[in-house]
Design goal:
- This protein has helices at 19-35, 58-68, 75-87, 162-169, and strands at 7-9, 40-42, 90-99, 102-110, 116-121, 142-145, 150-153.
- By secondary structure, the protein is α/β, with parallel strands linked by helices.
- The longest helix has 17 residues, at 19-35.
């Protein structure tokens, strides 16, 4: 564990359904973070797929999001692994993860050697109470031990539920 970490929080224009373009924009910003000697880069939630800005139909939006979802060994996580090992940095980013006929809003942490440290599935999804076909909720907190620090992970709406942070702190 380190006393200080140089971290970069990436803010970027994420375009819905433009996976290649989103990864390209993220890579340019990760390169800038590497030039600034960042040891940890944090990418936005669903940085590779984006969100629709004005979905005309929720069920159609969920079908389109499901079509974009990737397995944890898919192209986006492979890309994260390659960049993390190339730049010797930790990268954490949010993707849509597909597992069989289910999909999750998932954050993936990769260490500086390009090893996938773990993943965190969003536990409190807004869509799960509004529509069938929405993202499935995760069922556990994520805490990752790295050489930088011990990290707990929550995604977006999860922060409104103090028990998620409490469960992570107790691990």
């Amino acid at each position: 564990m380190k006393d200080r970490i140089i971290a970069a929080a990436v803010q970027m224009n994420v375009v819905f359904e433009d996976v290649e373009g989103n990864r390209s924009r993220a890579e340019r910003l990760i390169n800038r973070a590497a030039e600034a000697r960042a040891e940890l880069v944090l990418l936005p939630e669903e940085f590779n797929t984006g969100y629709p800005s004005d979905p005309p139909d929720r069920d159609e939006m969920y079908r389109r999001k499901f079509a974009l979802a990737e397995p944890l060994d898919g192209p986006t996580v492979t890309w994260m692994v390659d960049l993390a090992s190339r730049y010797c940095m930790h990268i954490c980013g949010g993707i849509l993860e597909r597992q069989g006929d289910r999909y999750y809003n998932t954050a993936v942490m990769v260490d500086d050697a390009g090893n996938r440290v773990g993943c965190c599935r969003k536990m409190h999804t807004m869509g799960s109470i509004e529509s069938t076909g929405s993202e499935d909720p995760g069922d556990d907190t994520a805490v990752w031990d790295t050489k930088l620090a011990r990290f707990g992970c929550m995604i977006c709406y999860d922060h409104r539920f103090p028990e998620v942070a409490r469960m992570a702190a107790l691990r």
